[in-house]
Task: structure prediction
Amino acid sequence: MISEFELIRRYFTHRARRAVLGVGDDAALVNVRRGCELVVSTDMLLAGRHFLRDTDARELGHKALAVNLSDMAAMGATPRWATLALALPRADTRWLAAFSRGFMALARRYGVDLIGGDTTRGPLNICVQILGEVPSGMALRRDGARPGDEIWVSGALGDAALALAALQRRTRLEPAELARCAARLRRPQPRIALGLALRGVANSAIDVSDGLLADLGHILECSGVAAEIEFAALPSSTVLRRYLDRRIAREALLAGGDDYELCFTAPRRAREQIVRCGRRAGIAVTRIGRIRTRVRGAPRLIVHAADGTALRLARGGYDHFG
Ligand code: ADP
Ligand code: MG
Result:
């Protein structure tokens, strides 16, 4: 049986490049660059709630860090350091090796140091804290959207939720289609480069982890504004587009979680600049609607269907289409 100390040494001790002191002491030490703010976020993944119980350990390692990196992307921050608190039912060395491989591969890709954490026995629970830097005053926040701003999203929406529905047999996809959508669910790609490029360009941003309606809703709430979006403008994959006659696909597009794309707002004059940001970051960016002035008693968010009628929305989803 491997001891706790041996486990930490073997799987979670890596040379820290940017930290003064990494794993091994009572706490880690880091230096934040002059003129920068420290950006801090935590995301927890619970077996059975945030991932299916049979999820591959390597993919889980990737995802645990990716969802945290996505929060850095949404803030326009450069991710620097991470801590990892792990509850494990047992010290399964095969599982640990795969998990740490998935986690560390992504950490290295973004130059993130694993600088500490905690390891304990218990039902599988993975809690990552991420720390990053942003030049003071430059973070992309949820409260900066202004009436007249245009609303944008990166990449394509809904694939992860569509894959989950197929895996849970709530809908059917062809095997090759399922494989493509499931990759979005299992190995989300944080839009770090886009978040950095949008600094000083976008007025507000959020990552789409709970679905577009819910997450755009947070921007509207925090900014005290309303919005209109065009259903037909929402970017989707060829797979999802093929099934738009299914309610479950439409729902995935509007309200499905786990895509980890960015939703952001910017004034009209920034259009060309945003397209360049997307090109530089290697990800498509699509305009989906516009921020409006909040009117008391009127809905905060209106989604126009292709025929011009408004979709009836219900808390984070919608109960009627077209
Ligand atoms: P303490 O008793 O002071 O909390 P621990 O024995 O829990 O110390 O941890 C020893 C060192 O290993 C600390 O530097 C801690 O941050 C690090 N550590 C523990 N678990 C992990 C983990 N899962 N990943 C990364 N570092 C870890
Ligand atoms: Mg400890």
Notes: The radius of gyration is 20 Å. The chain has a mean pLDDT of 95. Residues 304 and 310 are 4 Å apart (CA to CA).
